[in-house]
Specification:
Elements (H helix, E strand, L loop, with lengths): L1 H35 L7 E12 H40 L2 H36 L8 E13 L5 E11 L8 H9 L6
Antiparallel strand pairs: 1-2, 2-3
């Protein structure tokens, strides 16, 4: 009997917290609608569901993979440019024109310096970002929540439309309006384009 009562109290407290959190999220949405919709009075919430809870580790992994891809792109670009330079140098060497050879080699030397700096500096910047993200690699702390938000509202021409979007809500249950800014403030790095 006592065990059954304890379970019931736990379930009720969980439901109360869940309802309280949902009402905070709805209030955040209502404030956003009031400030940003063409006709806020036409807004009607159809459904709001918690879709995913994102932890800091998941965000860190995603941002790290983006940066690893960026480093590979930089290295591939530099490799392609070096291959182009080799072909230009070979053509200049075998053209037989001494002035063309000297001119091409000077130009290639300048481009080589620029290319080496580009590779070194760009990779270093991106690698520093990866190192910064390592602080979160094992963190199970909540970063933010994702909600599926279904609603009806009038668009800018006055037609009532039904929309479904995904909202990001931080762990303090406030709406994240600018995700890039959120990432920069929390992790020190943002999404790569």
């Amino acid at each position: 009997m006592k065990n059954h009562l304890t379970k019931t109290l736990i379930i009720l407290s969980f439901l109360f917290i869940s309802c309280s959190n949902e009402s905070k999220v709805k209030n955040e949405i209502d404030e956003y609608v009031e400030k940003n919709f063409n006709d806020p009075d036409s807004y009607e919430l159809v459904d709001l569901k918690l879709f995913d809870t994102i932890n800091e580790q998941k965000v860190s992994n995603y941002l790290t993979v983006q940066r690893e891809v960026k480093i590979n792109k930089i290295k591939n670009y530099v490799k392609e440019k070096r291959e182009e330079h080799s072909k230009i140098a070979a053509n200049a060497l075998f053209s037989g024109n001494h002035y063309y050879l000297i001119s091409a080699m000077k130009k290639l030397d300048k481009q080589k310096i620029i290319l080496n700096r580009l590779e070194k500096d760009s990779v270093k910047i991106v690698q520093n970002e990866i190192n910064q993200l390592k602080n979160y690699v094992n963190s199970k702390n909540i970063s933010h929540y994702r909600y599926v938000h279904e609603f009806r509202a009038k668009n800018d021409v006055g037609a009532l439309v039904k929309c479904i979007d995904t909202l990001r809500i931080n762990k303090d249950l406030t709406l994240i309006e600018d995700f890039q800014e959120f990432l920069l403030n929390k992790y020190g790095v943002g999404l790569l384009e």
